[in-house]
Amino acid sequence: MTTIQPEGENLRKAVKWIAEEEKAGSSQSRQQLMEAACLKFNLTPMEAEYLARSYKDIVQA
């Protein structure tokens, strides 16, 4: 099983926040949660791309 191991602290916080929101039954889609996390944790464009690519890989697995 693959795990996400993001390198930046803000990126780790974003991944954790998205997972917690989904577990809590958020009414937002994963895409909306990712966009909110990018703003909330001030992710760089590169970090945002990594986040999107990582979740895409998880869904396809």
**Principal-axes shape call:** globular
N to C succession of SSEs: HHH
Q: Strand share of the residues?
A: under 5%
**Largest sheet report:** none
Give the radius of gyration.
11 Å
* Number of continuous helical runs: 3
Secondary structure class reads mainly alpha
Unreliable residue runs: none
Count the beta strands: 0
- Which range best describes the helical content: under 10%, 10-25%, 25-40%, 40-55%, 55-70% or over 70%? 55-70%
The rounded distance between the terminal residues' Cα atoms is 9 Å
Mean pLDDT metric:
83
Q: How would you describe this protein?
A:
The protein is mainly alpha-helical and 61 residues long. The protein has a domain at 27-61. It is 69% helix and 0% strand. The protein has helices spanning 9-23, 30-40, 45-60. α1 (9-23) runs antiparallel to α2 (30-40) and α2 packs antiparallel against α3. The radius of gyration is 11 Å and the shape is globular. The model has no long low-confidence stretch (mean pLDDT 83).
